[in-house]
TrEMBL record:
<dbReference type="InterPro" id="IPR001754">
    <property type="entry name" value="OMPdeCOase_dom"/>
</dbReference>
<keyword id="KW-0665">Pyrimidine biosynthesis</keyword>
<dbReference type="GO" id="GO:0044205">
    <property type="term" value="P:'de novo' UMP biosynthetic process"/>
</dbReference>
<dbReference type="InterPro" id="IPR011060">
    <property type="entry name" value="RibuloseP-bd_barrel"/>
</dbReference>
<dbReference type="Pfam" id="PF00215">
    <property type="entry name" value="OMPdecase"/>
</dbReference>
<keyword id="KW-0210">Decarboxylase</keyword>
<comment type="similarity">
    <text>Belongs to the OMP decarboxylase family. Type 2 subfamily.</text>
</comment>
<dbReference type="InterPro" id="IPR011995">
    <property type="entry name" value="OMPdecase_type-2"/>
</dbReference>
<protein>
    <recommendedName>
        <fullName>Orotidine 5'-phosphate decarboxylase</fullName>
        <ecNumber>4.1.1.23</ecNumber>
    </recommendedName>
</protein>
<dbReference type="GO" id="GO:0006207">
    <property type="term" value="P:'de novo' pyrimidine nucleobase biosynthetic process"/>
</dbReference>
<dbReference type="GO" id="GO:0004590">
    <property type="term" value="F:orotidine-5'-phosphate decarboxylase activity"/>
</dbReference>
<dbReference type="InterPro" id="IPR013785">
    <property type="entry name" value="Aldolase_TIM"/>
</dbReference>
<feature type="active site" description="Proton donor">
    <location>
        <position position="96"/>
    </location>
</feature>
<feature type="domain" description="Orotidine 5'-phosphate decarboxylase">
    <location>
        <begin position="17"/>
        <end position="261"/>
    </location>
</feature>
<keyword id="KW-0456">Lyase</keyword>
<dbReference type="InterPro" id="IPR018089">
    <property type="entry name" value="OMPdecase_AS"/>
</dbReference>
<comment type="pathway">
    <text>Pyrimidine metabolism; UMP biosynthesis via de novo pathway; UMP from orotate: step 2/2.</text>
</comment>
Length: 274
């Protein structure tokens, strides 16, 4: 069984190191001429699956935009995850889960198990302590899946916690990167990634991570090739996975237009390939 890290690296070499989001938030639903209900969300997701399946390294459905529609919204998410994975496309569930004990174990089984929501990877929050992520890390390792740990996010509020000094004078963000790196030791390329905003003024030291670096904020939020170059050491360019949502999604609902917008972003980040 290939690890998630190995599969992501292979997909990035084939398609370019870009992650595209599926974010059916109300303004986009309206812009696409879709209804702001479960039917509209399901149609939005289906169009994205048609456009992105088999065409990109990683697809990141934003779980929050499906949840307001209850069971029918979750059913639309389940279909999107299943259809993308059936097309051979890696899926990252952007769920940002974080808890302790049996609750974290349940989250891990939901997103990294073999159930209807089971994805190739999931985003997690370590701010109940990195050790609280153990159930997700253990299940990801056992099932050949991946985990992306929030480390240095681009929202202004994040610095209140992430820039604070931790043990030994390291920032909390650096501590999270270093803990993820420990999980990736002794493998060619690890499956425990970190989330580092592409719009940050400064990033933690990523040179020793040996795992993927998800970088949201590309496009409409202001991040781009220059900011990624500034934040990521050249020695680990191949680990960076810029994540884009609105910049591509606003080209919809035309499948051809979505693919063209995605292709343009992939070309911009071709310099990250090994």
């Amino acid at each position: 069984m290939k690890t998630f890290g190995a599969r992501l690296r292979a997909a990035s070499e084939k398609f370019g190191p870009v992650c595209v989001g599926i974010d059916p938030h109300p303004p986009l639903l309206r812009a696409w001429g879709l209804t702001e209900d479960a039917d509209g969300v399901a149609e939005f997701a289906a169009i994205c699956v048609e456009a992105f399946g088999g065409a990109v390294a990683l697809v990141k459905p934003q779980v929050a935009f499906f949840e307001p529609y209850g069971s029918r919204g979750i059913a639309a998410l389940e279909r999107a995850v299943a259809d993308l994975r059936a097309a051979g496309t890696l899926v990252l569930a952007d769920a940002k889960r974080g808890d302790i004990g049996s609750t974290m174990d349940a989250y891990a089984r939901a997103w990294l198990g073999d159930g209807a929501l089971g994805s190739d990877a999931v985003t997690v929050s370590p701010y109940l302590g990195f050790g609280s992520l153990a159930p997700a890390l253990d299940l990801a390792r056992a099932n050949g899946r991946g985990v992306f740990v929030l480390a240095a996010t681009s929202n202004p509020e994040g610095g209140q916690v992430q820039s604070a000094a931790a043990a030994g004078g390291r920032t909390v963000a650096q501590t999270m990167v270093d803990e993820a790196a420990r999980c990736n030791a002794d493998v060619e390329f690890g499956s425990v990634g970190v989330v580092v905003g592409a719009t940050l003024a400064q990033a933690p030291d990523l040179s020793g991570l040996n795992g993927p670096i998800l970088m949201p904020g590309v496009g409409a939020q202001g991040g781009g090739p220059d900011s990624v170059r500034a934040l990521v050491p050249e020695s680990v360019f191949a680990s960076a996975v810029p994540a884009v949502s609105r910049e591509v999604l606003r080209a919809g609902p035309s499948v051809a237009a979505l693919r063209a917008a995605l292709s343009a972003i992939q070309d911009e980040f071709a310099f990250l390939r090994r």
